[in-house]
Amino acid sequence: MNNRRFIEQEEKLNRLGPIFGNDWHKKKKKTQQNSNKILNSIREAHEKIVDFLMLDINDSELNVAAELMNDRLHWFNEHFDETCNIQLAWSVCDEELREQIVKSIENVLLPAYGNFFEKFQEFLGKHVYEYIKYGMFEIQDRLNNLFLVRKQMSLMPEEKESLHKLA
Amino acid sequence: TPTAYEMLESFHFPAGILPKGVTGYELDPSSGKFSADLNGSCSFSLEGSYQLSYQKTITGYVSEGRLTELRGISVKILFFWLNILDVVRVGEDLDFSVGVASASFPLDNFFVSPQCGCGLDCDDFRIRKLDLGNRKPSLSSV
After folding, report:
1. Smallest Cα–Cα separation from A112: which of A63, A79, A67?
2. Pair A68, A55: CB distance under 8 Å
3. Which of A25, A144, B131, B135 is such that its CA lies 20 to 30 A from the CA of A32?
4. Nearest to B104 by CA among B60, B50, B24, B23
5. How far is it, in rounded angstroms, from Cα B100 to Cα A94?
6. What is the distance in angstroms between the Cα of B41 and the nearest Cα belonging to chain A?
7. Does residue B33 surpass a pLDDT of 50?
8. Distance CA A166, CA B51 (A)
9. What is one cellular component GO term in this UniProt entry (chain A) (predicted)?
């Protein structure tokens, strides 16, 4: 039991960064494929995000429109909260790529949210702030916290074997 | 012959890294190359967590605490589905990598195999939860 704990602590203390191995080039290619996949999916995400905040309320009565908007906003808030909380677990090491991803999401999400807010305000006037959970800057702050790098490194098999020998 | 879940456990991975319903698998012991088959594609959302998708066939290489060059497992990040390429066990955590991004989750998340469609939020979840103690993978003491 003591040996097991020693090995586990050693593993945590000696976590090392990735080391280029024989499969480095393969991984690099797959990394690029995933990068392209992320960026090329922005268009799809655009439709999904904007759908949350789109309303067809041309002929609705005042109170009906406000209720519809409130329901949509509630659903958006829940989805946004859940999405951000899930994605806090993930990190992107390439800072330039991370900024690119976040910027792309902002460019889609913030205008749609801003338009929604304006329409909501037309119906509720100053009372809109009783219903709005996030201001524009709060949305932006949450997005900017996504995918930040945390200390997560892999222990290569060679290192693990050497640890076993030490034990 | 051992099941796919038992094979993974022999390399110190929790059984819950695969969903229920694996119908068969192949393993080349010399290279670690493996293939596991499901009845069909399998997707589910783990409550309060992330969405996962498994294709009918999952392939990759397995060694002590490492799954590499994986094909057939995807995870949803924001609005995108990305292929999981590597899974590495580090102490009591599993590190998942999709190439451009990585995340670490505690082993506890993977002691029970999720069920296609409903993840861990199924009617019989409580019954199976009682078995958690018996299903913990054991590390060999040196």
Report:
1. A79
2. yes
3. A144
4. B50
5. 7
6. 21
7. yes
8. 40
9. exocyst
Pairing of strands B22-27, A90-92: unpaired
Among the listed residues A21, A1, A3, the one whose alpha carbon sits nearest the alpha carbon of residue A159: A21
CA distance linking residue A158 with residue A136, whole number of Å: 49
Please give the domain boundaries of chain A with CATH numbers for all domains. Answer: 45-52+61-149 (1.20.1280.170)
- Residue B100: list chain A partners with CB under 8 A: 31, 34-35, 38, 92-94, 97
The β-bridge partners of B94 are: B89, B105
What does the alpha-carbon distance between residue B56 and residue B80 come to, in Å, rounded to a whole number? 20
pLDDT (tens place) for every residue of chain A, 167 residues total: 455 545 554 444 444 333 334 344 455 555 656 566 655 555 455 455 566 676 655 555 566 777 777 777 876 887 687 677 776 777 777 777 788 778 777 887 788 888 787 777 777 777 777 777 888 888 888 788 887 775 433 333 433 444 444 44
